[in-house]
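Hi W.,

Here's what went into the run:
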Amino acid sequence: GEEVAQTPKHLVRGEGQKAKLYCAPIKGHSYVFWYQQVLKNEFKFLISFQNENVFDETGMPKERFSAKCLPNSPCSLEIQATKLEDSAVYFCASSQSWGESTDTQYFGPGTRLTVL
Amino acid sequence: AQSVAQPEDQVNVAEGNPLTVKCTYSVSGNPYLFWYVQYPNRGLQFLLKYITGDNLVKGSYGFEAEFNKSQTSFHLKKPSALVSDSALYFCAVRDILYGKLTFGQGTILTVHP
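Here's what came out:
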């Protein structure tokens, strides 16, 4: 598609429950990035993919967070055993490739996760 | 480590007046700088970017940004503000090796009629 799609829009989980978020990048884009936006608008990078391969996972809290990008499927971000501090808006972005003219990241509308 | 600072939490301007939203950066090497805008309950929309070339970059919706290497700044500007420009604006710098964006803390722009 022409836009990054994210589902669901809103997700409510009780503490300790699992949460799974999905992202469909723009068609033809090879790179996918996940960011977390928390209180006071702070953005935190989580993980990126080049096609189905992890590109950079330096921001991932590895204990409870995992992510995948499989061929012909939306990318996913999964949080096992959610905690209150996981409440945030999770954004996915995609970019076409690696180069000066094609490296712009285009963002999806986000998934708002509320952990109760 | 690279970083971006937006020194103003809020900027208020009257409609029709010029606006400036400030951004300073700290990187080792050449900076790759971006401006995004976020409307309430929406994702980030790309406005413009500086990679190399002219120091004055033109972008969407009449916005432009001036790259100043000596002052390590990348201020967003618009000659005549509109009420519809009211939103949250983010400056970001791209990691050279892996492309992740590091964002500033955001500036709320309010344009008064």
